[in-house]
Write a structure and sequence with these properties.
The complex is a heterodimer. Chain A is an alpha/beta fold. Helices cover 63% and strands 11% of the residues of chain A. Chain A has eleven helices and five strands. In chain A, strands 1-2-3-4-5 form a five-stranded mixed β-sheet, sandwiched between helices. Chain A is rod-shaped, with a radius of gyration of 32 Å. Chain A starts with a helix and ends with a helix. Chain B has a single domain, classed as Heat Shock Protein 90 (2-Layer Sandwich). Helix content of chain B is 35%, strand content 26%. Chain B is built from four helices and five strands; from the N terminus they run βααββααββ. A five-stranded antiparallel β-sheet of chain B has the order 1-2-3-5-4, covered by helices on one side. Classes of the chains: A alpha/beta, B alpha+beta. Chains A and B meet through helix 8 and helix 9 of A and helix 1, helix 2 and helix 4 of B.
Chain lengths: 248, 152
């Protein structure tokens, strides 16, 4: 087998590929193959060669190539080579899945930035759609940050949220209640007009928190409250406070 | 608007629908919402109505996922006459546990789930122009809702 492959190396390589780079890759593969094909654990040894080859040709070309070799060479161990190939692809797939899982974790961290905007003021910009997993992570991270920084005001900005349905609404309400249990006030900003209408239809109101048009007015409001040395009051004084901010 | 007297009368022909989606895990909810959104956008619904349709689909598929575990969302464009105004019809169909007290569920504020406001179905009814529900305990639930395109 070894001798046959080596003696017909050029002929085989020319049939296997046209581009120089791929020819070279197939040549390396065939030399490796000839080297190991008579050894006992040849399938394991061949895996490395297959990985190298896959850097230069795609799966289809590799599979076609093995078919061609099977035709051209008597007793070519196509089954073993395919087995090795499947195992290699399986390992590759496993690596990819692990990478995706890793990226998912990275995304979960990236997607919940909590920014200390000012002394005692935290900003939480929520971006994208919220699924239960992300929502859970976000609340946990936010509550920890509030406890660490002893923030008095948390501004939650939903400009980047494309849609608020009841589940996202529920999640926000839960988050507001938890934040308030820690003794901080919540200002909600960035509700888009089309979302406002949908929220009304759904019967969700966020009356437990202060709502400001955008981040700018939320900041102005907060600063004004701090300057006047007042704690931000909800309940009865809420209307008055809003009026105060409006004069700014 | 479809009306079913009995659960066994339900006969949905998938070929009549532009979008047919199986809901079986949480990711399918976002997929359904995205598809409904782009479908409504493609047919020139206003931004507010696109959001309403997407939200309604999100609520309906959430209900399927939460209570029935598995079911289908069907979406189609309805056109009575050519060049007349069109509407989008959404059907949510599952063979889940069914709803015991449909009136209460649709009235809002009623839920069997702990972490829920119980606003979903009532919300869908208000978001859409027409709304029909039939549910039979042990058999399943079907919701048919429609939104007309408004002229500007």
């Amino acid at each position: 087998m070894k001798d046959i492959v080596i003696s017909r190396l050029n002929e085989l390589v020319n049939e296997l590929a046209k581009e120089e780079e791929k020819k070279k890759a197939w040549e390396d593969f065939l030399v490796d193959f000839a080297e190991v094909c008579e050894k006992a654990d040849f399938k394991e040894k061949l895996k490395t060669s297959i990985i190298n080859l896959l850097n230069h040709v795609n799966e289809k070309e590799l599979s076609d190539g093995i078919g061609l070799l099977h035709e051209k060479i008597d007793n070519f161990p196509a089954v073993d080579v395919y087995k090795a190939l499947i195992e290699v692809l399986g390992e590759k797939n496993k690596e990819n899945l692990a990478k995706i899982a890793e990226l998912h974790d990275v995304l979960a961290e990236l997607s919940t930035p909590i920014i200390q905007l000012w002394e005692d003021v935290l900003l939480v910009p929520i971006i994208g759609t919220l699924d239960s997993q992300r929502a859970q992570n976000m609340v946990e991270k936010l509550l920890e940050s509030i406890a660490d920084t002893r923030a008095k005001v948390v501004i939650i900005d939903v400009t980047g949220v494309p849609m608020i349905d009841t589940i996202v609404g529920e999640f926000l309400i839960e988050m507001f209640s938890a934040v308030k249990l820690l003794g901080s006030d919540v200002i909600l900003t960035g509700i888009k007009p089309e979302i406002a209408h949908t929220l009304v239809k759904l019967g969700i109101d966020f009356k437990m928190v202060i709502i400001k048009r955008d981040l700018e007015s939320a900041l102005k409001y907060t600063i004004k409250q701090f300057e006047e040395g007042k704690e931000i009051k909800l309940d009865k004084n809420r209307g008055k406070n809003r009026g105060d901010a409006g004069e700014n | 608007m479809m009306n079913y007297q009995n659960f066994k009368d339900i006969d949905i022909n998938v070929h009549d629908y532009d979008i047919v989606l199986k809901i079986k895990d949480e990711n399918d909810i976002s997929v359904a919402r995205q598809m409904a959104k782009s479908f409504a956008q493609k047919h020139n619904f206003s931004l507010a109505d696109v959001t309403k349709i997407a939200t309604a689909v999100s609520e309906l598929s959430r209900n399927i996922y939460r209570y029935a575990k598995e079911g289908y969302i069907y979406i189609k464009k309805k056109e009575t006459e050519p060049d007349k105004d069109i509407s989008i019809e959404i059907i949510a169909y599952d063979r889940g546990p069914g709803i015991e007290n449909v009136e209460r569920a649709v009235a809002g504020g009623y839920t069997t789930s702990e972490r829920s406001l119980g606003l979903g179905l009532a919300g869908v009814r208000r978001l859409m122009d027409s709304f029909y529900i039939m549910s039979e305990v042990g058999k399943g639930t079907i919701v048919v809702a429609e939104k007309r395109r408004r002229k500007f």
